[in-house]
Amino acid sequence: MRSMTESNLAVRPGDHPVHGTWLSVDVVALTDDPEPKIVLIERAGAPHKGETTLPGGLLAAWDGETVEQCAQRIMRDKAGTELTGGVAVVDVISDPDRDERGHTVSIVVVARVPAEATGAVPVTQIPEAMPFGHTTIARSAIRRLEERLLVDPDTTRAMLGDETTLAQVRALLSVCGPTTAGAARKRLDRSPLYRRTDKLRKPAPTGRPGHVYRFT
């Protein structure tokens, strides 16, 4: 007989829980470029084979896997890309009817990936009615990101890193809605999480150098 830990957390290829509650990690990954996009994947297996979803998968808690390690593995194995920084938990979804295979609690994280990541689409093109409630999860995560950016240290550092610029802040805020340079600057300057330095960074070959802000 399998242990309680194994019966609730372990999985063999092709299996899914018949009882208990499972933990999964769903990754809302935004590309690190002037017009950040969201990474979506095409499911390789049943259920919903061939349909578009967020990158996600079971947390290998039986192997001592952390949420961040799980997100890194998911993005590497399912999206073919690496995270450029850490992750931040922005939501936990416990709807027992979300997954027809069994009760799966989703830990939703936000993260950044390289600009060239495959499967990235504008957030305005997130499909309606993605399986497992992923449409609602993605849109809710983006709203939470807008609320927490430059306010919550974990979310801010995961999405902007140890150093950032006004252009990068404005680009990320634009994912949540139209943002002027003035509004982004005011929000950045008022945040206690970053301190402006004398260091300059040129965002693009044709762009103007901007001051670097360092995480405090």
Provide tags for this entry:
single chain; 216 residues; alpha+beta; Nucleoside Triphosphate Pyrophosphohydrolase; 4-stranded mixed β-sheet; 3-stranded antiparallel β-sheet; 6 helices; 11 strands; elongated; disordered N terminus
What does the model show?
The structure is a single chain. The chain has 216 residues and is α+β, with helices and mostly antiparallel strands. The protein has a domain at 4-11 and 20-158: Nucleoside Triphosphate Pyrophosphohydrolase, CATH 3.90.79.10. It is built from six helices and eleven strands. It has helices at residues 4-9, 67-78, 134-148, 153-160, 166-174, 181-190; strands at residues 22-32, 38-39, 41-42, 52-53, 56-58, 88-93, 104-114, 120-121, 163-165, 194-201, 210-215. The strands form four sheets. A four-stranded mixed β-sheet has the order 5-1-7-6. A three-stranded antiparallel β-sheet has the order 9-11-10. Strands 2-8 form a two-stranded antiparallel sheet. Helix 5 crosses helix 6. The longest helix is centred in the middle third of the chain and has 15 residues, at 134-148. It is elongated. Residues 1-13 have low confidence and may be disordered.
